[in-house]
């Protein structure tokens, strides 16, 4: 201490400073000495542990040596016992011989023993043994130094030494002897001594060989070869040459090749032609790089034999279950048929073995789903268990309970000695006493977390328990990531003292809580306490710099207020950082993800652990999906129970379709078809592929680079552009009837000249698998009508079936909703499915209900027909499922419209859409597709640069239509013109003279007068001016103008663009007789109420401007009225947030015009 005083004086310290300096130096010296002593103690303890481990090793070595000595003593003792037993046996034999003094018996025994002694050493021999203890044929090995003259092992049928057969006679055939207990001396030790010897005996009445001891060599020699498992194949059916010729001639798909003259056709660098040789039809293909440039003669395979060929090429033991290309190449080396590649593709993809052995990495993951951001500390916590940890801690801990808060990333960890529910619950309650009780906890499906006891704990504490799906720990990734960090860090900290790991946990938790998290940008301590804690770095800085911050003195209220404000600000910043981190992680993860969806009824394979190793996963199934329980979670029926699995553990199972297997009809003029509803007719068309990507139209204003990108995109999805319909697994068409009585209709007679085209259509549909031959009790008739081009159209009349069909109320998006979504879009792509109805299969049990009759037989639909009442609902449901969660794509029936603001975003959306189309196995009609255009026709409207106009084709029809003369023609004209009523101001009033002519009681032939002519011409004139409307933009403020006249009311919805108001939509209504009696003020009020109701979809929940050339609202707010009608109007208007602007009548041109009838 004296030297400290001297050093202090040397530094110029005096008085209290000198005293404090000496005391601090003395404390530091004592601390250093304590640390040195601690290190010495630890070194001594480590040395003691090393000596203890050395002593333990020496003790284990001594124990091994002692066990070896005991084994040797036991072996010697066993030899002595065996010699004793041998002597006892000889004595027993003498006793038996004395009891049966028969010289002949003794002579036979001596001869038998003499023969046994003469056998060569260690050689196999067979002999007949006839003794009081066993009788039968023996296959034995003679010992070089035998212990006994004859040794019978522990085999069935051998008697005990003290129980010989007293009736035994040499040479006498004895009946089968029941098995007794084995010889007492034939124990495990004797068998071990004789493990290299073998003896097999045969009883006289039991011809099988019985082995007392079987060596490894004998077992290997006697082992039979297990036959290889070979897949049962229909290819074993014998098909001779005559049968092949017969099937080729009967196959309609090969007729055109047989009737085609020998003509060489160029196909790339090669040539192809067909020929008949010895009555067998061949395809001759020649290519410079195939078969050495020599012609390759391929047999054209008829339909019944194609599956056999594919089974041999793919499923057989020498097929190897190779991929599509190799299997296709193998088949084409000898065979060919039209559509070979498509058939092979379907066959290989539906192979059960291939689907179950596909590597898990080949099945793409589904896109990440954004987890809800928790912004309140300990609202939701994630919990998990680590262990079993080996070695256990010195105190007996084997597991660690971990908890992480979602908002602050604040962790907790508690070592546990056991993990039963009670122990885990107590540990959780202990943690909750420090951090508070959370609202939600997220765990896996461990028994500790889902037991009844834990459920009761959650109920008492009002905690909502969330669980992950089986074998999907990524759902609880927050705590799983912390577990990995904890284990890795703990391993480093306790490397020298592994059994002290439980003492390092608190220090590890402090280290984790102190550093900022990458996702939040703050440390858990900061988000928890609103400040940085004093840790090792701060202490070291203080020791070096002697700079200690002096805290500012604050009152309690000021401190709490500022702390709360800082915590809220910090949590808000952390929440924004979390959102950015979440978006970034999703972006990188989703680059290789595919949005795979399953529907109830789908067959799937599940990635599950093997029966022997939980770390090895394999595909098991197929199992059936019962329900969709989340965005990516599905309930699957696994055996006798149902479980929930994540989509990443599921893979769609493609069932191998069965082998393929064929409308009564009438011809009528087109005018007579009006009685049929368009939705009740199934049109049969040509199904041969005629269109491809070359038929797709591109936007005329695209740059060369943009056109090249679109061509590259189409090249990646060439198989989706086809006029031949695909077959989706998204949805099946179901037909639920109110009656089980089959519906049958008498076939309509078909003109003879129309039957040929009908047969051609039926054949095309049979080839494509759209229909098949039927024996159903149901039957609907077919009608043949002429198209405009003179060809025939074949349709099915399902009206009787539709009358007893349960209606499907699947909603359809309205045109108003669709156009609202297009606001701000500048680039469009229109995509039309190829015969969208035919791409949806009919449910197997409902196929007979679609049956229809033709002169050539009865057929039933395998794909959804057009004429059934619920066909449209099924199509809409399939489209909704395919596009679920996808932005910038709208649909109307089977028309898809992609709309974006930029080309890059547009191309990305197209790729996502076609990826979903590929997954759903849907094709699009190339000739009806247009990509990357700024002007597109959709739902009867023309869209361009945020404006909506009339479709020129429909306007031309209206302008060229003859003047209507009957009620029906007037209704048709008003229906077509009324579709564009939102473009025509005062449509209701203008067309009033025409609509009045369709009332009940008016003559069927219209009495055309000046009023009707003026209305007719006015409508045509207004439509010929090509009026345009602006697409509604919900981000902008709406303006509503209303007005009323003596005959009608009108409203006009507008929005400002560039400081000028532009119309969004027009609406008008004729006043009824009672409404015409309203006062002027009441009519104005009616116009306001009716206009707001008309455009309620746009005005509800937003603030808008109401412009009117009168002051009806002032009247409503100030008048003292007792009229219930006006009271209802007042109550209704209170639901809207509007700003009223009074304008002059001269400025309210649009609405004023809408309300007045054209004179």
UniProtKB/TrEMBL annotation:
<feature type="region of interest" description="Disordered">
    <location>
        <begin position="29"/>
        <end position="68"/>
    </location>
</feature>
<dbReference type="InterPro" id="IPR000477">
    <property type="entry name" value="RT_dom"/>
</dbReference>
<feature type="compositionally biased region" description="Basic and acidic residues">
    <location>
        <begin position="30"/>
        <end position="68"/>
    </location>
</feature>
<protein>
    <recommendedName>
        <fullName>Reverse transcriptase</fullName>
    </recommendedName>
</protein>
<dbReference type="GO" id="GO:0008233">
    <property type="term" value="F:peptidase activity"/>
</dbReference>
<feature type="domain" description="Reverse transcriptase">
    <location>
        <begin position="766"/>
        <end position="943"/>
    </location>
</feature>
<dbReference type="Pfam" id="PF00078">
    <property type="entry name" value="RVT_1"/>
</dbReference>
<keyword id="KW-0255">Endonuclease</keyword>
<dbReference type="Pfam" id="PF00665">
    <property type="entry name" value="rve"/>
</dbReference>
<dbReference type="GO" id="GO:0004519">
    <property type="term" value="F:endonuclease activity"/>
</dbReference>
<dbReference type="InterPro" id="IPR043502">
    <property type="entry name" value="DNA/RNA_pol_sf"/>
</dbReference>
<dbReference type="Pfam" id="PF17921">
    <property type="entry name" value="Integrase_H2C2"/>
</dbReference>
<dbReference type="Pfam" id="PF17917">
    <property type="entry name" value="RT_RNaseH"/>
</dbReference>
<dbReference type="InterPro" id="IPR012337">
    <property type="entry name" value="RNaseH-like_sf"/>
</dbReference>
<dbReference type="GO" id="GO:0003676">
    <property type="term" value="F:nucleic acid binding"/>
</dbReference>
<keyword id="KW-0808">Transferase</keyword>
<dbReference type="GO" id="GO:0003964">
    <property type="term" value="F:RNA-directed DNA polymerase activity"/>
</dbReference>
<keyword id="KW-0645">Protease</keyword>
<dbReference type="InterPro" id="IPR041588">
    <property type="entry name" value="Integrase_H2C2"/>
</dbReference>
<keyword id="KW-0695">RNA-directed DNA polymerase</keyword>
<dbReference type="InterPro" id="IPR036397">
    <property type="entry name" value="RNaseH_sf"/>
</dbReference>
<dbReference type="InterPro" id="IPR001584">
    <property type="entry name" value="Integrase_cat-core"/>
</dbReference>
<dbReference type="GO" id="GO:0006508">
    <property type="term" value="P:proteolysis"/>
</dbReference>
<dbReference type="InterPro" id="IPR050951">
    <property type="entry name" value="Retrovirus_Pol_polyprotein"/>
</dbReference>
<keyword id="KW-0378">Hydrolase</keyword>
<dbReference type="InterPro" id="IPR043128">
    <property type="entry name" value="Rev_trsase/Diguanyl_cyclase"/>
</dbReference>
<keyword id="KW-0540">Nuclease</keyword>
<feature type="domain" description="Integrase catalytic">
    <location>
        <begin position="373"/>
        <end position="532"/>
    </location>
</feature>
<dbReference type="InterPro" id="IPR041373">
    <property type="entry name" value="RT_RNaseH"/>
</dbReference>
<dbReference type="GO" id="GO:0015074">
    <property type="term" value="P:DNA integration"/>
</dbReference>
<keyword id="KW-0548">Nucleotidyltransferase</keyword>
